Amino acid sequence: DAVLPLDKQGFQPRGAWRVKATVANRQLSEIAALLPEHLRAKIPAGDVAIRADLAGSPVHPSGTIDVTAHAAALKEVPGAQTIELHATLASSGNTLNVATKGSVALEGQPALALIDGRISMPFVWNGKALDRAGLRAGLMVDAAIDIPERSLASLSTIRAKLADFDGTIGGRIVAKGPLKTPILDAKLAWRGYKTAAGTLGETTLAATGTATKPSIAITHGALTINAEIDRSNPERIAIKARTRAAKTPLLPLLPAMIG
Asked: N or C: which end of the chain has fewer CB within 10 A?
């Protein structure tokens, strides 16, 4: 169901449109066939359903897009993963904002990750042509990925050895700035595991900075490790690390499965 901005001169991107479309459970292989050959192998097996409800105009679009995919995106994980995304489009001047909420789940399990964020981009039309180069160059992201706390053993479908680990894992990853080089702020924690001393342990990892120059801090009981990593030179990786440890018995630092 679509009302498109067409007249005798053809497509008019500043004219009003209304598009309602539903694509139900199409195989991803059908979509892959439409892509350049070098990209086809990157599309996993699975299916996708899409529902779109767009209004406004091509120049100033508004509306929603819902995507549900079941795909074997993680090759070493049995079964398919379920990815659900809900996007809301809103235009402001020559900028298009896309607010996105979604989730990623392993087969038969609750959500592994929850996504909540916004992508904004320049949305400038020169006549009837969208400035695609400007759009790509100006992509900005402000998003958070929450990893709900769950037992570490529940991830044994990803790595079988995790079945032997107790405790829970959870955290949050935030990305802000240019989509190609966002500033990251990530915190993950492994909590509630038994130590060799019979106590409950906690290990946290915090990472800030960019993908090429991250700062990492690991806290494991009384032990702290800080590292500054520089990957800006493709020929080498520079790492500056320092470790601090308060006076403490060794056993509380050892997980019970090791100690």
From this structure: N
